[in-house]
Write a structure and sequence with these properties.
Blueprint lengths: L7 E5 L11 H8 L6 E5 L3 H6 L9 H6 L2 E8 L14 E8 L2 H9 L6 E5 L6 E4 L8 E5 L6 E4 L6 E4 L3 E5 L3 H12 L5 E6 L18 E6 L12 H6 L5 E6 L29 E5 L5 H13 L5 E5 L20 H18 L8 E5 L10
Parallel strand pairs: 1-2, 2-3, 3-4, 4-5, 5-7, 6-8, 7-9, 8-10, 10-11, 11-12, 12-13, 13-14, 14-15, 15-16
Pfam families: LRR_At1g61320_AtMIF1 (PF23622)
Protein name: At1g61320/AtMIF1 LRR domain-containing protein
């Protein structure tokens, strides 16, 4: 070990009856030197996972600057903020490692060059958040992490996901199109999906692929400059026969040429396809955009089990009225004008299509602060 001069160290299949296990820290202190690029430590025994704690002291300044690939298996690993940045780390693979989600997030936040992350049976992770500062991060693989309930990706260039769990949250531009195009084949068992997009350049395509087990869908579409046809979201409804709840948060205000009052009153129709499980739909930031009105009418016609439909014409980033009697609440200007136009669209095109079994809740601007038609 003292004569080791390579750039990588691999310790594989070390068994607990080897006396070398008791000297492992000493071995690693000798072997892991500044300039090292690869370190693989796979102890391959569940006993080690409880008893062996990977020493953070190995990551000296020189090691943190040089190490590119780190692979750990069957041990305990508790990175902290004091660890410092791993400037060259591009690949991280953890297998049966005892680590919490906040500890992993700390490590990711200090690994700005990271490109790939693989997690295998790391059951201490409940929530995985991938920071937006990981500009090079493009590949995520997760298998057998039984307690993992939520993945939220803020990395802008994540392009490949291999995932065996049920709940996924993704945040970046064009994620709605990406999710509809790619996720049914690589994540067929999704139970819940949350998508947040700052801008969608293209509308959501109609495809034959399905989310057979998807029950809960949340979509947030931000203030990006590109026009978007909300009616194209029918693609998700057609692909999700088990869907129970749909939450759509729309911060975009329609341009004058997008409002239904600037178009022919004829509404587009889709081939009738009954949705037997969809019970609750909420649209926040509901506007007079023609595609949004058409999407709502499609839901009312085809969601045969629908119980509650909420159309909130206020935008999520506006404050609610406090009711204190001082000042006005946050809806004003163009947003207030659009909210009034949205209420008119609901009365004109939607209210008479609501079945008696459905509870329609319409939320408008505060009547105390604003005079409504």
């Amino acid at each position: 070990m003292r004569n080791h001069s390579g750039i990588g160290v691999k310790i594989l299949e070390l068994q607990p009856f080897f006396i070398a296990y008791h000297n492992l820290n000493s071995w690693l202190q000798v072997a892991v030197k500044p300039g090292i690029e690869e370190l693989t430590l796979m102890l391959c025994d569940w006993i080690f996972r409880k008893t062996y704690k990977f020493p953070l002291s190995l990551f000296s300044d020189g090691v943190r600057s040089s190490i590119r690939c780190l692979e750990l298996g069957f041990c305990t690993f508790h990175p902290t903020a004091e660890l410092g940045p791993l400037r060259s780390l591009t690949s991280l693979h953890l297998s049966s490692v005892r680590i919490r989600g906040d500890e992993l997030h700390c490590l990711l936040s200090n690994s700005l060059a990271l490109e790939t992350l693989e997690l295998n049976e790391c059951n201490g992770i409940v929530c995985l958040i991938i920071p937006s500062k990981l500009q090079r991060f493009s590949f995520l693989r997760i298998f057998g992490c039984g307690r993992l309930k939520l993945i939220e990706s803020k990395a802008p260039n994540l392009s490949t996901i291999d995932f065996s769990g049920k709940t996924l949250s993704m945040l970046h531009s064009d994620v709605i199109c990406y999710a509809r195009t790619e996720l049914p084949s690589i994540m067929p068992n999704l139970d819940a999906l949350k998508l947040s997009s700052s801008d969608e350049v293209v509308n959501t395509p109609m495809l034959p692929t399905k989310f057979l087990y998807l029950k809960h869908l949340t979509i947030h579409l931000g203030l990006g400059p590109s026009p978007y046809d909300y009616f194209s979201l029918v693609s998700f409804l057609e692909a999700s026969p088990s869907l129970e709840t749909l939450n759509l948060d729309v911060s975009k205000k329609p341009m004058d040429n997008e409002t239904i009052f600037g178009h022919s009153p004829h509404l587009r129709q889709m081939t009738e396809d009954q949705h037997c499980y969809l019970k609750n739909v909420k649209i926040t930031g509901f506007s007079s955009a023609k595609g949004l009105v058409e999407l709502t009418c499609y839901i009312l016609k085809n969601a045969v089990s629908l119980k509650c439909l909420t159309l909130d014409t206020n935008y999520a980033f506006f404050g609610k009225c406090s009711g204190s009697g001082f000042g006005q609440c946050g809806s004003f200007g163009k947003s207030l004008r659009e909210a009034r136009r949205a209420l008119r669209a609901i009365r004109t095109y939607i209210e008479d299509k609501v079945p008696t079994r459905v509870k329609l809740t319409v939320v408008g601007p505060c009547s105390r602060c604003h005079k409504l038609p």
